[in-house]
Write a sequence for this structure.
């Protein structure tokens, strides 16, 4: 019966992680360039017990519960909204904008940029957007970006090309900064030649609110079901101790 408590408790922890992930997606449904997250689960395999050198063996064939395996990032394209601002850029393809912060590289699909007083294209937080030759200088807000990422000045002079990057491993779990940028290890990315740039557009979050609400309901019911099982096992243990095991 104690094993049942731990198995049900692991289900509660997994459901809680699911609820937290769905709630985070719902909270960012209107966040520009937000990439939806999903949590995956895996069973506690018998091998996880058998691998110990102490020769531990499971009792019976009952599963050992469930654990949170990974937080997966959905890299699919979100909806496009036309804004008409020259500094608003959206990407059609699997590429990401490359941003520099404190000497490191970050990646984002949020193309709501501005031009600072020095004429460089920066994020809302002031981080420089990178071109192939470093921080992207555009001069003023009258610049043009072609679909293949070339940046032209107001006089038609080619200044640089946006550094668009493909992230590795498809939809693997990426580390994230508190403001939503993706972090990838050095040497794991590569340029993407197929992504097209749409100037004057912004890409919304790739979150389907209806699907998230369904997941929210299922996760809540999963948590409740496991909670009831914990209470049932607790009641059975109490009965075994106080009634079955009582001296007569």
């Amino acid at each position: 019966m104690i094993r049942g408590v731990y198995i049900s408790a692991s289900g509660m922890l997994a459901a809680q992680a699911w609820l937290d992930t769905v709630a985070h997606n719902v909270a960012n449904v209107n966040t520009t360039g937000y990439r939806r997250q999903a949590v995956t689960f895996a069973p506690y395999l018998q091998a996880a017990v058998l691998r110990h050198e102490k020769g531990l063996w499971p009792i019976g064939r009952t599963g050992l519960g469930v654990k949170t395996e990974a937080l997966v990032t959905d890299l699919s394209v979100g909806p496009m909204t036309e804004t008409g601002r020259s500094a608003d850029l959206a990407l059609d393809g699997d590429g990401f904008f490359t941003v520099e912060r404190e000497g490191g590289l970050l990646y984002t699909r949020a193309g709501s940029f501005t031009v600072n007083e020095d004429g460089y294209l920066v994020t809302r937080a002031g981080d420089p957007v990178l071109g192939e030759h470093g921080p992207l200088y555009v001069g003023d807000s009258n610049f043009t970006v072609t679909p293949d990422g070339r940046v032209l000045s107001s006089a038609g002079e080619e200044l640089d090309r946006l550094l668009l990057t493909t992230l590795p491993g498809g939809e693997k779990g990426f580390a994230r900064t508190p403001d939503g940028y993706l972090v990838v290890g050095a040497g794991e990315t590569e340029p993407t030649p197929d992504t097209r740039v749409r100037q004057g557009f912004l890409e919304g979050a790739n979150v389907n609110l209806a699907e998230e609400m369904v997941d929210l309901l299922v996760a809540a019911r999963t948590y409740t079901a496991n909670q009831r099982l914990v209470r049932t096992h607790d009641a059975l243990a109490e009965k075994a101790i106080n009634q079955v095991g009582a001296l007569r």
